[in-house]
Amino acid sequence: MTSIAKPPVAHPSARRNGLGLTVRDYEGGMSTLCAGCGHDSVTAAIVQATWELDLPPHRAAKMSGIGCSSKTTAYFMKQSHGFNSVHGRMPSVTTGASAANRGLIYIGVSGDGDSLSIGLGQLSHAIRRNVNMLYVLENNGVYGLTKGQFSASADIGSTSKQGVANEQPPIDPVLLALTLGATFVARSFSGDKQQLVPILKAGLAHRGFAIVDVISPCVSFNDHEGSTKSYAHTRAHGAEEVHTDFVPLRREITLPDAAADVSVVQMHDGSSVRLRSGRGEHDPTDRAAAYAHVAGCNARGEIATGLLFLDESGREMHDHLHTVPTPLVDVPYAQLCPGSAALDALMTEFR
Amino acid sequence: MTSIAKPPVAHPSARRNGLGLTVRDYEGGMSTLCAGCGHDSVTAAIVQATWELDLPPHRAAKMSGIGCSSKTTAYFMKQSHGFNSVHGRMPSVTTGASAANRGLIYIGVSGDGDSLSIGLGQLSHAIRRNVNMLYVLENNGVYGLTKGQFSASADIGSTSKQGVANEQPPIDPVLLALTLGATFVARSFSGDKQQLVPILKAGLAHRGFAIVDVISPCVSFNDHEGSTKSYAHTRAHGAEEVHTDFVPLRREITLPDAAADVSVVQMHDGSSVRLRSGRGEHDPTDRAAAYAHVAGCNARGEIATGLLFLDESGREMHDHLHTVPTPLVDVPYAQLCPGSAALDALMTEFR
Amino acid sequence: MSGINDFAFKMGTVNGTGSASANGLLMQSIFRMGIPVTGKNVFPSNIQGLPTWYEIRVSAEGYTARPTEIDLVVALNPASYAKDIATVRPGGIVVHDSSFPLDPALSRDDVTFLGVPFGAMCNQAFTRDRDRTLLRNSVYAGTLGALLALDMAIPEQMLAERFGKKPAVLKANLTALKLGYDYAKAHFDCPLPFHLERMDATRDSILIDGNSAAALGALYAGATVGAWYPITPATGLMEAFKAFCERYRVDPDTGHRRYAILQAEDELAAAGIAIGAGWAGARAFTNTSGPGISLMQEFIGLAYYTDIPCVFFDVQRCGPATGMPTRTQQADLLSLAYASHGDTKHPILFPANPHECFDMSVQAFDLAERFQTPVFVALDLDIGMNDWMVPRLAWDDAFRPDRGKVLDADALAALPRFSRYRDVDGDGIAARTLPGSGAKGAYFVRGSGHDQHAAYTEDSAAYQEVMDRLARKFAHAAEAVPQPVIRLQPGADVGLVTLGGCDAAVREAADRLRDVGVVADVMRIRGFPFGAAVRDFLERHEKLFVIEQNRDAQLRSLLTIELGVPRDSMIPVLDYAGLPLSATAVVQGVTRHLTGVPA
Amino acid sequence: MSGINDFAFKMGTVNGTGSASANGLLMQSIFRMGIPVTGKNVFPSNIQGLPTWYEIRVSAEGYTARPTEIDLVVALNPASYAKDIATVRPGGIVVHDSSFPLDPALSRDDVTFLGVPFGAMCNQAFTRDRDRTLLRNSVYAGTLGALLALDMAIPEQMLAERFGKKPAVLKANLTALKLGYDYAKAHFDCPLPFHLERMDATRDSILIDGNSAAALGALYAGATVGAWYPITPATGLMEAFKAFCERYRVDPDTGHRRYAILQAEDELAAAGIAIGAGWAGARAFTNTSGPGISLMQEFIGLAYYTDIPCVFFDVQRCGPATGMPTRTQQADLLSLAYASHGDTKHPILFPANPHECFDMSVQAFDLAERFQTPVFVALDLDIGMNDWMVPRLAWDDAFRPDRGKVLDADALAALPRFSRYRDVDGDGIAARTLPGSGAKGAYFVRGSGHDQHAAYTEDSAAYQEVMDRLARKFAHAAEAVPQPVIRLQPGADVGLVTLGGCDAAVREAADRLRDVGVVADVMRIRGFPFGAAVRDFLERHEKLFVIEQNRDAQLRSLLTIELGVPRDSMIPVLDYAGLPLSATAVVQGVTRHLTGVPA
Ligand SMILES: Cc1ncc(C[n+]2csc(CCOP(=O)(O)OP(=O)(O)O)c2C)c(N)n1
Ligand SMILES: Cc1ncc(C[n+]2csc(CCOP(=O)(O)OP(=O)(O)O)c2C)c(N)n1
Ligand code: SF4
Ligand code: SF4
Ligand SMILES: [Mg+2]
Ligand SMILES: [Mg+2]
Question: In angstroms, rounded to a whole number, what is the distance separating the alpha carbons of residues C211 and A225?
Fold first, then answer.
């Protein structure tokens, strides 16, 4: 969580977004992660995505647990409130914040230890409740901050820096999310900003729980041969399946290599996502197909990346709760307290 | 957990099993559950299964969490040690017991609240570790002991006794277990002893984590129209897919209606399971097929029952741990303590 | 010591057979006769089939503590016959079902047995099994009506209110009631020497349980987010909150709800949700019992160290571990006061009855926001789940929530710089901003070491500055929490100190002690940390008794730690049997010490 | 006050650059010169790039507490230059990298600056970036060797041991070492006034960290099941246990392991695993720190209430919440002593150094099984992670584990009936059976209310009988836990009371206090509950100071609660800065109170 004030050097890009803000306005404190840590690339992608989306910083809330990955919420959007909570419990804190103030955009950042070990239950139930948030899982197969123990996502046969091989089957957050009914499921790679940024934007625009599993190598403890979360391994085995290209209504952005086989999915907030199926293997709106596809890739030792499943018809937590459109924090006290007359009347029922 | 000494009335069946024990020897204290509770039927099935298996009572350990379902470990095998632990944490207690004494046969009983809400993380990680145990999940869609709140397995649209409908998607323990790599996954129904008993026997013989999701209606809070865990609903929608017929080497037992399409799977302990695919829809040794099949049934509003997936090649926790064959509790102290000479030698390395 | 409007009776039945409603009917009828009455439900931790008891005490003087002497028992559960018959005082009465012969071994010659063929009568009068079981309850209610001279118009009226829409059910119940009544009239000389006579002592009172009252407090305090995980005996609190919200907080046209109730996956999540909501600016709470408090420890420490408001209701049950979930105790005091690892201290409120549950629930939300910290309200099963006779709850429409130091846009703009944890006023409370308030007010909440600007730190001085502020803040809370209720008597030679639900028994005990020549002042502590008033009382009394419902004298420990009052100057009177406290237990505890022999 | 073999120096570097090994090399070399030495690592909670410090104290008298005065600083991290230069005592020395000019603003005229072109020299001597960074550490080690008159044969020898198999690496390191040494010799007059001279005071000692020593204790005690979840500063304990097991508990032929180490999914699971294993009959343990203790509360209560043996190592760090994970504190005392809701109390052992970590680790397993209860060993980051100079660990091969009352087949057969919780011997300890022992010994463990036969109960008397037995059992533990170490001085007028890692500083402080005329007896508490010896010491001293490392005087609270010693008769001396305690802090705390002015 260390955060050092950034030295005032002018940022290359002074370009301004729809709100007149520069990319710099979406940055945070200086990172204290290891030089070359995948997480820093994800942070950069989040900065880029929020800037491109014209996301008003004061409307965002940054949520995280504990871990190197969870520290990164301090490294972007310094103009937004942030909550670095306890290990593995960020989902519940965000659930509560969202219940209280549905007007904010919640950006959660977690790690594989934080999400799949101690936090597995909370992650699963946040998915089930369909809490309206972006959940970025920076997945490096290890516990970075505690110096490289295996996490539950470490693949069988993957060897830690000490050269000991992991023997337990990994938990794939993508298959888990699909099984638990997640309405937005994607996977990307910290080294592939071109794919990651549009996915993050789509996730931010999604109404409901949007989970993005980002393979984000730990250079200190897991980025070496034998690790299936290393740059090398992911580049070699990353089988991109669906490109995402987010299109806000205001101004169209297209990836340089945008092309054929495009299925346009209407996002709840009116904007749309253009999905291109790399090999046209599966329909990203078909849960069963998505599951089969991802499981198939895993079986082949490939990693399915891209926006893997999307259901814009899902009902988010507030739909289940039937809460008022106004954030509860903004409902005036007068509308909350029934007053003395009501109480007097009620008392007669207790006699 | 209530357990009242049983009045000494002679039990109908005085038949003796291979150990010379009667069914009565496998019973426990008198149940204090509601008359007609599905859990009592499951208890009876466990008694039957362990008796038929000639399971030596002193070699069994009964493990549970908290709930009406978890109470039932007091209602069978009174000659065995039992551990009624804390809510949702039985998997870890059993993991520890198994680590210490791999010589015992662990029978875990839990409920849907105990397993899928507070206990979801521990259940998932026990599956991942492949702890060698039978895990019976008595699934009634509600928190019985706390008077009928919805559990995470309550189906959408299912209405509780107060007539309020559940709005969140249910968690299907079978799909979850398949996703997490469980090596024995089955589902049955408390009302179908004929199917349940052989499944329990197969699960007991399985080497590794055997999960049996048993639809076990709560008569007090959930067995009424609108509940998808009711007797009526399950009888109407239970689409039996695979019959299980357990065959110990000593003496063959066959279900009256045993018949064609039989695939025999060799169990690790030398015994074998004969699987009959009701509609021959899927191969119970193919995880992907099993998942697709169960998900398909769910989509059709059917409940896939039977032994749905089996992998006898899986390595259980002790294989991962490389522990000695002798239970650790039986390893003599002399083989644990390196002694003074070793310590003196070691000390030189700390200078 | 029994007499007109001064006696106690008890029903021994099987749970899940519907006796609860009949028992409630009886108690409420007595209440409506204007006579002070108390009911204690002693039930098992299962759903159906085990022994359960309901004790009703009638007291013209208005004593509401659990009775020690039972004048009459209605023994309807063979499984508990022996125990039930044994509890009747010499000269008392046993009403039993004479449909079956009573085992002679059970009879006592110092009590009167009144046999009533409840079973037989029901089988004759009703055909459906369900009715035969259910209506038996109305039959014994009728019998008691006759024996105790209950004004039968009242129960009849109440049944009418209850079953107005179901004439058949109503008719059946009235028939059953009459069956029991007539049988008693015909076979026994009614009323008994101890019986009921109209009074006018309940006009300004209500019958309510503490869970419902606390829920009403949350409703009126403006709480909008409730997170919980079901657990006895706390469940009723959130269920009541839900019911009240559905009634007062739903837009009739749109069906939109001005509240959010989340049934979490466990207590850790419930705490996290409440804390997340508190951080976001909502008045949020969670309700639980001992096991939940243990599971919430980590999150409690986070909220403490990051100054986040949140209200925790702990409806205490009998510990440790799962313990006896349907028995009462006050044994979580240390767990609450110093909850979580590291140096932590938390305010606690101790309501003594449902009326205080309402008031203190409201205060808890104000205190939590004013002090920006977790605040606990410590109920217990007896207060939470039993119906108590208390004054009607009242509300002052002038009330406005005390949100504490929350900076709005203008206040923020006026500041040169916003430092989340700077103690500007010297009271240890630093102003906060809410998420969404913009760049200048943005800060980063972290459970890791932070300085007064909320920046990460590993610097000793910066760390200690925050810790010292938190200690200052806690000290300031001592005068803000509810102050003790002190009852002084001229010439008092001992001081009785207690808290929460022990109140009724201790006050009654003080009266009885006076009769045996022990004049006692009474102080009931209502809040933690302890203020000057508590210290003074302790210092002013030579001989102190601390009466509480746990094994380890936890309240006494808190007094010793926080006030420095020597432990051994406070004699512990401990009751941890799991049942509501009786005056006799207190009198005995005190006199045993004073005289060496029990009273 | 510095001189030959009596001084302290400090390295300020960047973490993740390999300085740790050079610092260790220096410390160990001094140790091998026979001179008492201590090293304290003050590091950040991240992996790479932040300031980190290593303090080495040389003390002929054998004082091992953290030094207060720094005679020499090696300032190699520009980010902490200012802070580092400021910590040098007047007249002290700053060694810095003269490859770059030093900001004049940083210079002090009361200290000597010795510039060494570490960077430049490395760039010249080595080509690969990696080497240029890594070997700089060996260069400053060489410089210090010259300045402090280190016997260079020793570090050279150690490098040879370390890199024997990598001649190239060895050569490079030796070159670097020489570079630094020669530069110093050439440019400064070596050695400095304060420097090293061979002694023979470490022959019977070792350098070891508490985590490793505790792990060795678990190994020798016969622990077979270790469950944990990674957390600083406790991680090293299980990693060491694993390393020792791989060395001493693996069958060379089959590769079979006579141990099971489980990295759990979280601390709740780790506790559950350890408790399940303890129930099954293994010696099981878990290691964690504050946040883990909070998460384990529910399970701890279960083990307490069901009489299950289990050992918990709490390597305390700076709380509350996540707090400062790489700083030390003793602030979990209350959380451990009364862990879990309801009435609970637990034995705790307080090792003062790695040597005691070994002994007490063994004792903890005996006590846990003998008393059938969770036993805590409270280390802290300073003890757990720093290398301490302590006597060699020794083992008596006559040792046999005390398994406590476990019934074997014959004992069981001899019994008329087995009642799991019957207190036959009156010591509160009831005999247990292990799963698998057969029908007669079979019983049902339940966290819910149970009687002495382990049967479910909701009966007050049956419940209380078990609770009272547990209280008796705890009381008996008072004389079984390690007794206090008491050091009396003739004519002492004050008593210093402390625990754990404060020991070294308090003993040193006692000596220094004597020099200023304050004669103090010292009692170091080593176990909870407190026995007669602790009580006597407290009663025998008019003026008591309780020295501990937390904000809220938690040890003093325990003494007040458990022994009834008036709180205010014990003056708290509190240090919660997160760093190892220094004698000066203690001397000041005491004298400030006695004289009103700091020493
Ligand atoms: C309750 C608790 N247990 C353990 C820890 C120690 N801890 C800090 S971070 C971490 C794991 C982080 O792993 P991951 O979430 O994958 O993050 P990464 O560092 O790999 O990005 C652990 C175990 C803690 N802070 N809190
Ligand atoms: C930590 C904790 N929280 C809550 C409870 C209360 N509680 C007891 S059983 C139960 C739920 C049981 O549901 P399930 O596991 O489905 O069992 P069922 O009664 O339906 O068979 C709960 C919430 C508890 N005992 N412990
Ligand atoms: S340890 Fe790994 S995960 Fe943590 S900051 Fe360094 S590279 Fe990143
Ligand atoms: S409440 Fe439901 S689950 Fe519990 S015993 Fe009764 S029927 Fe069974
Ligand atoms: Mg990770
Ligand atoms: Mg259930």
Answer: 60
Residue A59 CB: number of other CB atoms within 10 A? 13
Query: In the numeric block, which tokens belong to residue D393?
Result: 């660990």
**Which chain C residue has its CA at the smallest distance from B144's CA?**
C47
ipTM of the predicted assembly exceeds 0.90: yes
Chain D closest CA to A13's CA: distance in Å?
27
Q: Decide if C272 contacts A129 (C-beta within 8 A).
A: no
pLDDT (tens digit per residue) in C431-489: 999 999 989 999 999 999 999 999 999 999 999 999 999 999 999 999 999 999 999 99
Give D413 to chain B, closest Cα distance, Å.
15
Closest CB to A2 among D50, D231, D263: D50
Which residue, among C444, C453, C457, would best test binding to A if mutated, counting the most A CBs under 10 Å from its CB? Answer: C444
Measured over the CA atoms of residue C537, residue C539, residue C545 and residue C551, the dihedral's sign is: positive
pTM of the shown model:
0.95
- Distance in angstroms (rounded) separating the CA atoms of residues B343 and D392: 9
Where does residue B260 rank: exposed (0-12), middle (13-18), buried (19+ CB within 10 A)?
exposed
CA B191 to chain centre: 16
pLDDT tens for B191-229 read: 899 999 999 999 999 999 999 999 998 988 876 656 677
Residue C66 DSSP code = B
> What does the pLDDT read at residue D47?
85
**Which one of A152, A180, A296 has the shortest CB-CB distance to B171?**
A180
Which residue minimizes the CA distance to atom 6 of ligand 3? Answer: A34
Can you point out the beta strands (E) in D452-493? 485-487
How far is the CA of D572 from the CAs of C230, D543, D559, in angstroms? 43, 11, 12
Closest CA to D114 of D78, D143, D83, D89: D143
Reported as type and span, the H/E element at residue D445 is strand D444-446
Contact A193, A48 (CB under 8 A): yes
Which residue is listed with tokens 């940054």?
A62
**Interface contact B100-D438, CB threshold 8 A:** no
Ligand 3 atom closest to the CA of A147, numbered from 1: 1
Total count of residues recorded for chain B? 351
Q: Which amino acid is at A309?
A: F
CB C246 within 8 A of CB C217: no
Q: Which residues does ligand 3 sit against, CB inside 6 Å?
A: A 33-34, 37, 39, 68, 140, 144-145, 218-221; D 47
Ordered alpha helix ranges (H), D63-194:
81-87, 118-125, 129-147, 153-163, 167-187
Q: Are D579 and D327 in contact (CB under 8 A)?
A: yes
Average pLDDT, chain C: 96
Q: What is the dihedral angle through the alpha carbons of B96, B99, B103, B104, rounded to the nearest 10 degrees?
A: 20
* Predicted local confidence at residue A11, as pLDDT: 52
Smallest Cα distance from A60 to chain B, Å: 26
Chain centroid, CA C514 distance in Å: 28
Phi-psi region of A113 (alpha: psi -120 to 50; beta: other; left: phi over 0): alpha
| Helix B120-129 × helix B90-100 angle, to 10° | 30
Which positions ≥6 away from D105 have C-beta within 8 Å?
none
Residue C391 β-bridge partners? C205
Distance between Cα A125 and ligand 6 center (Å): 17
Distance between CA atoms of residues A170 and A147, nearest Å: 19
Strands (E), C101-230: 112-116, 205-209, 225-228
At C254, which helix (H) or strand (E)?
none
- What residue has token string 């964690």? D288
Q: Which of B243, C478, C34, C550 is nearest to A351 (CA)?
A: C34
Peptide bond into D230 cis (omega under 30): no
Ligand 4: atom nearest CA of B222 is: 2
Q: Do B85 and D444 touch (CB under 8 A)?
A: no
| CA B269 – CA B271 distance, rounded (Å) | 6
| Phi/psi at C536 (5° precision) | -60, -50
